[in-house]
């Protein structure tokens, strides 16, 4: 039943389609394309698309891209705002049909006696000539994206299957030669293995030493060490639309039955089900590799309903991370990526969770710890002008491409350990050969594989030393890490080591690294922290170096060092918080008032020096109500204040000596086979 007329124009509408969010309609209008919102009075978006009539158009729900074909014998790719991304060369005949694959990675173009399979970037995978079928007038993909049907002007219906799909990892190359047959080739010795399946192959993924293949009914897990005996288990939820791998397990994205949204099945490489993630807001057809990331302990998914929101789940249980509050970014998130290194969170750990990288619509790169996201801490920006990012396969090193250059963040965790040092850990390399709209395929060893917009595959070499440094730090071999940095003599590597040492609380290594790059103020700060008698004081000093005052206060209060916490806020001129802590713990209220009075007196002296010769000089007086209140109640005596401070420092020294004695006893027990030796 016709409910309303959305558009009425003088030229025929040859094609129309819905937007991904179903609130707009894209239709043809002669040589133009028009995006018409459903809201009454909303302004339509129109642009000239072809030199001839536009005959066919399709809008993909996953990547948000538009493909169009016209009588000018060209097909073109657009973004949702009408900006051109790709324009093909002129064909022999008009383009009469275009259709996106369900996952948005491919699209099909139909012309007279011709079918062309293209990548989402626009370049052509293959061309098939079909004599006698005429012009395809309609194209329809199967739900799993492996088959396509074409209705032709000659009255024939053509069915096609996708073959020769290829997956590469390390020294292996896997090719789908037939619908039920795959060929594995080892490029090192040219050894070839053939894998046969009972049903046609739907999805496959190669990485982390395993090949995962999903057919219509089963999942096969192969180890690259043995191609003869795969692990096989049945698929109960439905067709697999996406496979994402991590080092210890992988996730299968399936369409849940009954319209209940997508089902994320986390399985080990032994075929054991680890966890199941279900969500009514998750739609299998809207999830792709750029919007779903997996690590050994975390799953990150961009919310299909709100692209500014990232959902975090525990990979081992399927439950939301923390209290279930998602991570909300200020702009639309284009890509999510999780650090794949063992342990996560950057080398050295520190219990802060795994690193999550976000790429937003403005092409800015942000990082956040998964635990920090749970605590509501916002992501930290580490770079910009990136069109695609990828983590190293084994080390917490991030690479990004865009704007004609390759960027390497050698230690993204430096943004948390020492924000002022983070820019020194970034390398930028001009790479005009990458062209426009490059895409990172993999980052393994000392090479980054990049796919150009024209389909060419480039292998860009990078330095192997950052990965080696992270490996040494993860193994707690700090002396070898220092030797490596002294051998390479790279300031960026020294800065990376300094940040890793601060995160791991290796003060001696941090001091040496800061000294190597001439950071005198940081050397002084670390040296002062080393001289503190109590471990909690040293850890709090490192937290202050990273700019996290809240964490420093928590460390000191948890360790019973109330005066240190109060003095920290005094040194930072956070007077209200210092007084609040003193009143709450009923100690050193007079100390806070005394230092406040001294501060005001120093301000008064500075103003008098600056205003010499003026008849009327400003007077600095206390104006904060709480300080005025306690100044009337508490008497300030500097002798008593200094005595209390001296007593606190003496207690810290005694506590530090006792802690050192206990540590020495425990160490000696381990060295002497359990016999304690007191010193």
UniProtKB/TrEMBL annotation:
Keyword Glycoprotein: no
Residue ranges constituting the IFT80/172/WDR35 TPR domain according to the UniProt record: 493-654
Organism placement in taxonomy: Eukaryota, Metazoa, Chordata, Craniata, Vertebrata
Compartment(s): Cell projection, Cilium
Repeat positions for WD: 47-79
InterPro entries named in the record: Beta-prop_IFT80_2nd, TPR_IFT80_172_dom, WD40/YVTN_repeat-like_dom_sf, WD40_repeat_dom_sf, WD40_rpt
Keyword field: Cell projection, Cilium, WD repeat
Organism: Petromyzon marinus (Sea lamprey)
GO biological process, one term: cilium assembly
Broad class of where this protein is predominantly found: other
GO CC field: cilium; intraciliary transport particle B
SMART domains found in the cross-reference section: WD40 (SM00320)
Stated name of the protein: Intraflagellar transport protein 80 homolog isoform X2
Location of the IFT80 second beta-propeller domain: 164-465
């Amino acid at each position: 039943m016709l409910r309303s007329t959305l558009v009425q124009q003088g030229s025929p509408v040859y094609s129309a389609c819905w937007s991904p969010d179903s609130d707009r309609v894209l239709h043809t209008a002669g040589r133009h394309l028009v995006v018409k919102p459903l809201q009454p009075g909303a302004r339509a978006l129109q642009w000239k698309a072809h030199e001839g009539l536009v005959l066919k158009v399709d809008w993909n729900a996953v990547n948000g891209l538009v493909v169009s074909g016209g009588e000018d014998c060209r097909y073109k790719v657009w973004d949702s705002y009408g900006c051109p991304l790709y324009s093909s060369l002129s064909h022999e005949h008009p383009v009469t049909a275009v259709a996106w694959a369900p996952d948005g990675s491919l699209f099909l173009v139909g012309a007279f006696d011709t079918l062309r399979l293209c990548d989402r970037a626009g370049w052509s995978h293959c061309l098939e000539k079909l004599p006698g079928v005429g012009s395809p007038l309609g194209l329809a993909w199967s739900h799993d994206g492996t088959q396509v049907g074409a209705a032709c002007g000659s009255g024939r219906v053509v069915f096609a299957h996708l073959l020769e799909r290829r997956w590469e990892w390390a020294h292996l190359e896997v090719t789908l030669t037939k619908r039920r047959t795959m060929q594995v080739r080892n490029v090192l010795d040219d050894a070839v293995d053939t894998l046969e399946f009972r049903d046609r192959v739907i999805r496959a993924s190669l990485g982390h030493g395993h090949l995962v293949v999903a057919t219509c009914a089963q999942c096969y897990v192969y180890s690259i060490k043995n191609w003869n005996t795969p692990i096989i288990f049945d698929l109960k939820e439905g067709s697999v639309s996406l496979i994402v791998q991590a080092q210890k397990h992988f996730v299968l994205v399936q369409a849940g039955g009954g319209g209940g949204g997508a089902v994320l099945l986390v399985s080990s490489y032994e075929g054991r089900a680890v966890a199941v993630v279900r969500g009514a807001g998750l739609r299998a057809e809207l999830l792709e590799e750029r919007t779903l990331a997996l690590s050994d302990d975390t799953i990150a998914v961009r919310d299909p309903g709100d692209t500014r929101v990232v959902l975090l789940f525990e990979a081992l249980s399927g439950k939301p991370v923390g209290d279930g509050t998602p991570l909300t970014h200020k702009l639309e998130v284009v890509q999510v990526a999780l650090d794949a290194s063992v342990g996560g969170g950057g080398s050295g750990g520190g219990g802060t969770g795994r690193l999550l990288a976000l790429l937003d619509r403005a092409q800015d790169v942000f990082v956040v710890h998964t635990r920090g996201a749970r605590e509501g801490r916002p992501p930290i920006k580490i770079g910009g002008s990136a069109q695609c990012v990828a983590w190293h396969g084994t080390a917490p090193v991030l690479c990004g491409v865009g704007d004609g250059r390759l960027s390497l963040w050698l230690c993204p965790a430096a943004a948390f350990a020492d924000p002022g040092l983070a820019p020194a850990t970034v390398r930028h390399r001009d790479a005009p050969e990458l062209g426009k709209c490059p895409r990172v395929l993999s980052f393994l060893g000392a090479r980054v594989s990049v796919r150009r917009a024209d389909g060419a595959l480039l292998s860009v070499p990078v330095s192997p030393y950052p990965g080696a440094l992270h490996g040494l730090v993860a193994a707690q071999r700090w002396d070898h890490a220092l030797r490596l940095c002294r051998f390479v003599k790279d300031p960026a590597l020294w800065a990376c080591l300094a940040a890793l040492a601060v995160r791991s609380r290796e003060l001696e290594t941090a001091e040496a690294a800061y000294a190597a790059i001439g950071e005198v103020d940081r050397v002084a700060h670390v040296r002062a922290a080393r001289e503190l008698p109590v471990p909690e004081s040293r850890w709090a000093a490192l937290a202050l170096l990273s700019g996290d005052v809240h964490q420093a206060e928590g460390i000191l209060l948890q360790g019973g060092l109330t005066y240190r916490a109060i003095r920290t806020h005094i040194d930072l001129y956070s007077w209200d918080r210092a007084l609040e802590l003193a009143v709450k713990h009923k100690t050193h209220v007079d100390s806070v008032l005394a230092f406040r009075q001294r501060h005001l007196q120093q301000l008064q002296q500075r103003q008098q020096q600056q205003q010499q010769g003026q008849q009327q000089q400003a007077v600095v007086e206390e104006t904060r109500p709480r300080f005025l209140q306690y100044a009337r109640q508490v008497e300030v005596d500097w002798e008593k204040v200094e005595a209390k401070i001296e007593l606190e420092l003496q207690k810290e020294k005694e506590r530090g000596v006792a802690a050192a004695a206990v540590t020495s006893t425990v160490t000696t027990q381990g060295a002497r086979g359990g016999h304690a030796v007191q010193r």
